[in-house]
C-alpha cells in the first residue's frame, strides 16, 4: 500500500515570483491582487454601452446602473485586501460614474455631487458611491466571516481589526459605531448607507449657492417621491426638474450662467427661476395652461 500511494503522489508547484493565477474569481500573485486597470476598463465599457443605448429612458438607465451594473464590482471589493482599495482607484471609478450620469441626464458639469448621492426622500438620486460602498461591502463580508465560527478563517485573518478599519475608512463617529453593535448584521449596512447619505445631504445644504433652500426638501418627504418614480412627468420634464433641484438651470442670476447683465432677456426684472416661472409675461401662457380646469 505504501508503494502504491508513493507512486500516485504528485508534487504541487508553488506560484512563481512573477506568475499570477485566478481561483474562484480572485487573482493571486504571491498575495491577493486587485487589477485596477482591468476592472476600470471592463466597467467603463459596460457603462458606456448603457449610456449610448437608445432603447432606455434616463430613469431606467439609473435604475440599471444601481441594480445591475454596479453590483458587478461587489465581488472584487469583498475579496480585495483593504490596503488594495486605494482612494485614488475608488475616486476614479466615481468620476466615471458621475460623468456617465450627467451625460444620461444631460445636466451641467457643475451639478452638485451631493445631489447624486443623497436619498430620494430629500430629492436626491440615491446613487451608489464607490468610495464608501467598497468599505461597506468589505465590512459586511467580515461580519459574515465572524459569524461563521470557522477557526481556520479566524486564524488566518484578524476580522475584528478589518471591520474596525472599514469603519475608520468611512469616517464614522464613535457614537455611531457604538450604535451599530446593537443592530443585527443585515441592518448594519443599511444603517451605514443611510447615515452616509444624510452626511451628503448636509454637505449639499451647506453649499453657498446651490444649497439655498435645500434644507426644506426634508420637510415633506412624501412630495419627493417623483425623483424615484418619475410619475406624471415626461423624461424631459423629469431631467429639467432635476436641474431646478440642483440650481443649475440656464438662468442669468445663477452663477456661471451669464457674463453680462442679470436682467431678464424679455423684461427689466432680475432673471431668477422664480421670476421666469411665476411672473415673467413671456411665460404667462405656460402658467395658464398649467392651471387645472374649473
Summarize the structure.
With 294 residues, the chain is an all-alpha fold. Helices cover 53% and strands 2% of the residues.
Would you give an account of this structure?
The protein has 2 domains: 192 residues, no CATH class; 45 residues, no CATH class. It has 294 residues and is mostly helical. It contains 15 helices and 2 strands. The model has no long low-confidence stretch (mean pLDDT 83). Helices cover 53% and strands 2% of the residues.
What topology, given as strand order, has the largest sheet? Answer: 1-2
Beta-strand residue fraction: under 5%
Distance between the termini: 98 Å
Q: Give me the Rg, rounded.
A: 25 Å
List the SSEs and their pairings:
Layout: H1 2-8, E1 21-23, E2 26-28, H2 36-52, H3 58-69, H4 74-79, H5 87-105, H6 113-117, H7 130-147, H8 151-156, H9 159-169, H10 174-180, H11 185-205, H12 226-229, H13 235-245, H14 273-278, H15 284-290
Helix pairs in contact: 2-3, 2-5, 7-9, 7-11
Primary descriptors:
single chain, 294 residues, mainly alpha, two-stranded antiparallel ribbon, 15 helices, 2 strands, 53% helix, elongated
Amino acid at each position: 500500500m505504501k508503494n502504491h500511494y508513493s507512486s500516485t503522489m504528485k508534487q504541487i508547484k508553488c506560484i512563481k515570483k512573477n506568475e499570477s493565477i485566478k481561483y474562484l474569481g480572485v487573482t493571486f500573485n504571491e498575495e491577493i491582487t486587485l487589477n485596477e486597470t482591468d476592472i476600470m476598463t471592463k466597467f467603463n465599457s459596460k457603462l458606456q454601452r448603457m449610456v449610448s443605448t437608445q432603447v432606455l429612458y434616463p430613469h431606467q438607465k439609473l435604475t440599471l446602473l444601481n441594480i445591475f451594473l454596479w453590483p458587478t464590482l461587489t465581488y472584487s471589493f469583498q475579496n480585495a485586501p483593504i490596503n488594495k482599495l486605494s482612494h485614488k482607484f475608488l475616486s476614479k471609478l466615481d468620476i466615471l460614474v458621475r460623468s456617465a450620469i450627467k451625460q444620461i441626464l444631460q445636466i451641467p458639469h457643475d451639478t452638485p455631487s451631493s445631489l447624486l448621492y443623497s436619498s430620494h426622500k430629500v430629492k436626491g438620486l440615491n446613487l451608489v458611491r464607490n468610495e464608501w460602498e467598497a468599505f461597506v461591502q468589505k465590512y459586511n463580508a467580515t461580519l459574515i466571516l465572524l459569524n461563521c465560527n470557522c477557526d481556520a478563517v479566524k486564524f488566518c485573518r484578524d476580522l475584528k481589526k478589518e471591520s474596525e478599519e472599514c469603519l475608520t475608512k468611512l469616517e464614522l463617529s464613535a457614537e455611531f459605531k457604538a450604535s451599530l453593535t446593537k443592530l443585527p448584521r443585515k441592518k448594519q449596512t443599511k444603517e451605514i448607507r443611510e447615515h452616509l447619505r444624510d452626511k451628503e445631504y448636509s454637505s449639499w445644504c451647506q453649499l453657498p449657492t446651490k444649497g439655498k433652500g435645500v434644507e426644506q426638501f426634508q420637510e415633506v418627504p412624501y412630495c419627493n417621491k417623483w425623483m424615484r418614480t418619475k410619475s406624471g412627468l415626461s423624461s424631459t420634464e423629469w431631467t429639467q426638474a432635476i436641474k431646478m433641484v440642483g440650481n443649475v438651470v440656464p438662468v442669468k442670476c445663477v452663477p456661471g450662467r451669464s457674463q453680462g447683465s442679470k436682467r431678464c432677456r424679455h423684461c427689466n426684472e432680475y432673471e431668477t427661476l422664480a421670476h421666469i416661472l411665476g411672473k415673467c409675461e413671456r411665460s404667462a401662457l405656460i402658467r395658464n395652461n398649467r392651471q387645472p380646469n374649473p
